[in-house]
Design a protein that fits this description.
Blueprint lengths: L12 H27 L3 E4 H6 L1 H4 L4 E15 L4 E7 L5 H6 L3 H10 L5 E7 L11 E8 L5 E8 L3 H4 L10
Parallel strand pairs: 1-2, 4-6
Antiparallel strand pairs: 2-3, 2-5, 3-4, 5-6
């Protein structure tokens, strides 16, 4: 006696495991992308922009760049607390070029008493490159007291622009 078999697909338990595993992997990747994007979102400001928007940005992750005023550098090696002041300098390369390049812009920024200035506090080892007229690029948060609390401190190597204007660079 001949019987006809119904043509029904047999459920493959391995296939559903692969689909479920793939979906979980996709969700994990999307979560990691979104969470790292949010955590890494830092606005880049000049000193002028930051000081005019202080109330709007208090506590937010920020990046700011400025020219280090050498005589304000104060380092306590016991607490690893570094305090210094930065002056506003242009954030756009075209504006830096208009001022005569990076060395001239740094020189002008620290010697112009009318430039906006901001106090910075950083806790950590004092960088060797921290000196008068260095460009400091900082990541951190603005405090309610108007002080920028840096978590990261990067300095443009002064030797890169010593050749451009050797009479403007000093060893402080």
């Amino acid at each position: 006696m001949a019987t006809t078999l119904d043509a029904q697909p047999i459920a493959n338990p391995n296939r559903s495991k692969f689909i479920l595993g793939g979906l979980l992997l996709l969700v994990a990747v999307v979560y990691l992308i979104v969470s790292s994007t949010i955590a890494g979102a830092q606005y880049f400001f000049t000193v002028d922009e930051l000081m005019t928007r202080t109330d709007d940005v208090v506590g937010s992750p920020l990046r700011v760049s400025g020219a280090v005023i050498g005589e304000t550098i104060d380092y306590d090696p016991d607490t690893l607390t570094l305090k210094f002041t930065v002056a506003h300098m242009p954030g756009d390369q075209a504006l830096l070029d208009e001022e005569g390049g990076l060395a001239e812009a740094l020189y002008t920024a620290v010697n112009d008493p009318d430039r906006t200035r901001m106090e910075v506090v950083y806790v950590g080892v004092k960088p060797d490159l921290l000196r008068h007229e260095a460009q400091a690029i900082m990541a951190g948060t603005m405090g309610e007291d108007g002080v920028f609390y840096a978590d990261e401190l990067l300095l443009k190597c002064p030797t890169r622009y010593e050749e451009a204007a050797p009479d403007q660079v000093s060893d402080n």
